[in-house]
Every structure is written in C-alpha cells, then in structure tokens.
From TrEMBL:
Keywords: Cell shape. This is Cell shape-determining protein MreC. Residues 98-237 form the Rod shape-determining protein MreC beta-barrel core domain. The keyword Zinc-finger does not apply. It comes from Micavibrio aeruginosavorus (strain ARL-13). Gene3D superfamilies: Rod shape-determining protein MreC, domain 1, Rod shape-determining protein MreC, domain 2. InterPro entries: Cell/Rod_1, Cell/Rod_MreC_2, MreC, MreC_beta-barrel_core.
C-alpha cells in the first residue's frame, strides 16, 4: 500500500518524522558535542601549557646566559684594570682571584685563590689596577692571605713623589692609614702623591699608594688608591731577584702585636 501512496505524501511523512526526531537527535548529540569541545579545549590548553613551559625554560636559560655575560664582563674589566699599573722589569706577576675576607686575628685582610703551588709566598707585594693593596702574610698550597694597608699591623716605607720626604704608611684599622715618621721640617702639600720607596727590599719602589690628606689637628693620613672592598682580582709581584729577601722574611714573624704597634 505504501508503494501505492503518492510520493508527495511520503515526503510529507518523512518531513514530519524528521521534525519529531530532530530535537531528540540534538539532545542526544549535545553531550558528545560538549565532550568534543572539552577535549579540544583541553588539548589546546595542554599545548598552551607546553608552550608556556618551553618559553619559561628558554627564558631561564637566557637569564643564565645574561648573568654569565655580566660576570664575564665584570671579570674582564677587573683584569683590564690590573693592566693599568705597569712596573719595569724584572717584575713578573701572579694574577689571582679574591675569594673573601675569612676573618682571623687580622682585622683587615683578604683571601686569594692562589698559593705556594702557584708561586705565592709570604712577603710578596700585592697590587690592584690602581696601586698597592698589601702583602702576602700567609700562603698555603692553594690559597693565601693578604694583609691590607689598612690593617694596624701593616707598615709600608714610602716617599712623597717628586721630593726626598720619606715616611711610613701605618694601618689604623680604618679606611685611611696614617703617615708616620715624617721629618720634623716637612712641608707636605695636600694631595701629594705617595709611592713606595723600596726601602728594606720588601716592596718594589715606585708603586702608587695614595695621596696626602692633611687633618685639622695636624695629623697626616693617606687616601689610598686601591679600594679593597671592590676587588675581584689582584696581582702578586714575583721578583726572582728578591727571592732571597722574601725567603728570609718567611723565617721571621709577620705580625706587629697591638701592644708593640705605634700609636696612631
């Protein structure tokens, strides 16, 4: 009988059935569509998270490289500054990294990452790019200690540049050492340059130390050229011609006790 029905009538039946089934099909498909959208969203979120992690990792590497570049730049500048101060032959140098101030009986001292294995021995003079820093007072196999010019145990024979006025730079455990043992009739000018005299053979002559500072109370102090607080590298003077002097020094005490030190 269906075959005898008019095609138009069949089409109307199909459309009616479709109208009835469409909402049901939509309701059935909705959870699947939501699930598909959720899977797509989760997949996109996972990709975004993966990309975010990749960018974070790359950013961390870039920061590491940036810090490394800054460190290398700082070290390069420190090493270049060491080359600013030149002394004539027969001086040779040992360049060493400053570790820290470990603190011991010396109030003002530094540790360096070089020792007897590198040729660093007690008594050697230590320089920065600006001038004299101090001298080696202890040396192990791989590390050594520098007594700074500001320590109360430090004494350095000096001369006022351009004159024959000799004196001694004496540490006072402060930023400005005193200039002692001056001749009574001296006529010092503020700002006069002070260099090592070489007296005694411990320090080479002509190494810049600082400038004369005249106090209101008549005391004379020294504005040091080398600022130990900002040092990353130093140069230790290794003088073969002076080796006997330095070896002899190694047999003698290096410390002037506070009781024996001259009053500032």
């Amino acid at each position: 009988m269906a075959s005898a029905m008019n095609p138009a009538t069949l089409q109307g039946v199909r459309l009616a059935a479709t109208d009835v089934a469409a909402p049901l099909m939509a309701a059935v498909n909705t959870p699947f569509r939501v699930a598909a959208d959720y899977v797509t969203a989760v997949t996109g979120l996972a990709e975004l998270q993966a990309e975010n992690e990749r960018l974070k990792s790359e950013n961390a590497r870039l920061r590491e490289w940036y810090q490394t570049a800054l460190s290398l730049k700082s070290e390069n500048e420190s090493l270049q500054q060491l080359l600013n101060l030149k002394l004539p032959p027969p001086y040779t140098y040992i360049t060493a990294r400053v570790i820290a101030d470990a603190g011991n009986t010396f109030a003002r001292s530094l540790l360096i990452l070089a020792g007897q294995n590198d040729g660093v021995i007690k008594g050697q003079a230590v320089l920065s790019g600006e001038g004299l820093v101090g001298r080696v007072i202890e040396s192990g196999g791989r590390a050594a200690r520098i007594l700074l010019l500001t320590d109360m145990n430090s004494r350095v024979p000096v001369v006022i540049e351009g004159s024959d006025i000799k004196a001694v730079v004496a540490g006072q455990n402060s930023a400005t050492p005193a200039l002692i043992h001056l001749p009574r009739d001296h006529e010092l000018q503020a700002g006069a340059r002070i260099v090592t005299s070489g007296h005694g053979g411990l320090f080479p002559p002509g190494v810049p130390v600082g400038y004369v500072v005249l106090g209101d109370n008549g005391q004379v102090s020294v504005q040091l050229l080398a600022q130990a607080d900002n040092l990353s590298f130093v140069r230790i003077i290794d003088r073969v011609l002076e080796r006997t002097v330095l070896d002899n020094l190694a047999e003698t005490p290096a410390v002037i006790s506070p009781a024996a030190a001259p009053a500032p």
